[in-house]
Amino acid sequence: MRTELKLRIWPDKILRTKCKAVTNPDANIRRILDQMYTIMKINRGIGLAATQVGLDICCIIVEAEDRVFRLLNPKIIKKEGTQIFEEGCLSFPGLSLRIKRARSVWVTAMDEWGDPLDIEAEGLLAVVFQHEIDHINGIVFIDRIPLWERMKILPVLRKMEREYGVC
Ligand code: ZN
């Protein structure tokens, strides 16, 4: 069965959902990844997680520094250093936040054919991996800022809630 996926915007509850691992990557999973990639490109994103298209499965797409990753069950196994980056999120239109994250990350995952992958990333690529892997754990980037800063963006979040509804 073909399902049409669409971008989910805050405060959609799916963004708070912890995803299930993919055990058997099949044609359906690859079709989902294709659709996610298209949605990401249309919206000019550089990363997208399954929760952002309404699915609770551990799939992410990352496209940065001329590399595309279509990953299942990605996990950060090691982090090093710190960096601060100005991040956006397709599920929070118009919001950009400076977030402190690790400078380098080591990620294990499975590719869409079921083969294991080990990835080492730093800089922007490491930021995108951390942002997207947060998503599949039900964590969004506003969770990564201090409380006082969250208070500052409250009007923006309230506006989003009015516009996109409390689901
Ligand atoms: Zn995001």
Ions, cofactors and other ligands present here are: zinc ion
Mean pLDDT: 95
Q: Given the helix and strand composition, which structural class is it?
A: alpha+beta
Helix content: 25-40%
Percentage of β-strand residues: 25-35%
End-to-end separation = 25 Å
* Element string (H = helix, E = strand): HEEEEEEEHH
How would you characterize the largest beta sheet?
5 strands, antiparallel
CA radius of gyration is 15 Å
Low-confidence stretches: none
Task: List the keywords.
167 residues; alpha+beta; 3 helices; binds zinc ion
Task: Provide the fold topology.
Elements: H1 27-42, E1 47-49, E2 59-64, E3 67-80, E4 83-88, E5 96-101, E6 104-110, E7 116-122, H2 123-136, H3 147-164
The structure holds zinc ion (ZN).
Structure in words:
- The protein is an alpha+beta fold.
- Helix content is 29%, strand content 29%.
- The two termini are 25 Å apart.
- It has helices at 27-42, 123-136, 147-164; strands at residues 47-49, 59-64, 67-80, 83-88, 96-101, 104-110, 116-122.
- The protein is built from 3 helices and 7 strands.
- Bound molecules: zinc ion (ZN).
- Zinc ion binds next to α2.
